[in-house]
Design a protein that fits this description.
alpha+beta, 22% helix, globular
Length: 209
């Protein structure tokens, strides 16, 4: 099992350059938080969009939405996770899965993780292609903040990385989150295995082994 990335026991990265082996990729992760409930955001309904709680989704349906939202940004952890491990997460009463619906079509994913007492992590937040830039992200984030702070928490946090959309970090900051930690993650480049298209996260070059 890999080490918890938020563990204070993780070694500090040395100053200067570090080589990344061919076939792997490095990404800079930024963690952001808000430590008090913000004033409610006012925003009129956006078209036919609604945010619906998705209790105990099937593995297949969840992964289909997860892929449609995150494939272009190299979201892969839930694609390679063992089915039983993923099922345990999705069925945990302290994990809330919500779908952004446009009529009867799921176009966004919101996952709130309350498994650590007193806080909530926005585990996943994203929109399917074709939904971005129409106010849906703000609509979903307002719902995320409202739902998270409806529970007795003192901290709401989220993380993003440079493999995500370049709009993600400033969007979170505009939403009231403040950066508190940066990390570097080095992993296998899954574009080389075909798990996601080679066109995913085009801002990060592919270096063949």
């Amino acid at each position: 099992m890999s080490q918890d990335p938020m563990s204070p026991d993780n070694p500090m990265l040395l100053s200067g350059y570090s080589n990344v082996p061919p076939g792997m990729i490095a990404t800079v992760v930024t963690c952001l938080e808000m430590q008090e409930r913000p004033e409610p955001g006012s925003m009129p309904p956006v078209g036919s969009l609604t945010v619906e709680h998705w209790p105990s989704p099937s593995i297949e349906d969840y992964r289909a939405l997860y892929r449609s939202v995150g494939e272009h940004w190299m979201w892969t952890s839930r694609l390679i996770m063992d089915d039983s491990e993923l099922a345990a997460i999705l069925q945990d009463p302290l994990v809330e899965v919500h779908a952004l619906m446009d009529g009867d079509r799921a176009v966004g994913l919101l996952e709130l993780d309350f498994r650590k007492e007193g806080e909530c992590e926005i585990g996943y937040f994203g929109l399917a292609a074709g939904t971005i830039g129409k106010g849906a992200g703000r609509f979903l984030m307002n719902a995320a903040i409202e739902k998270a702070w409806s529970r007795p928490i003192s901290r709401l946090w989220v993380h993003t990385c440079h493999l995500d959309s370049s709009q993600a970090l400033p969007f979170y900051q505009r939403s009231g989150f403040k950066p508190f930690k940066m990390m570097v993650e080095v992993v296998d480049d899954v574009r080389l295995t075909g798990l996601v298209p080679r066109s995913a996260s085009p801002q990060a070059p592919i270096i063949e082994p």
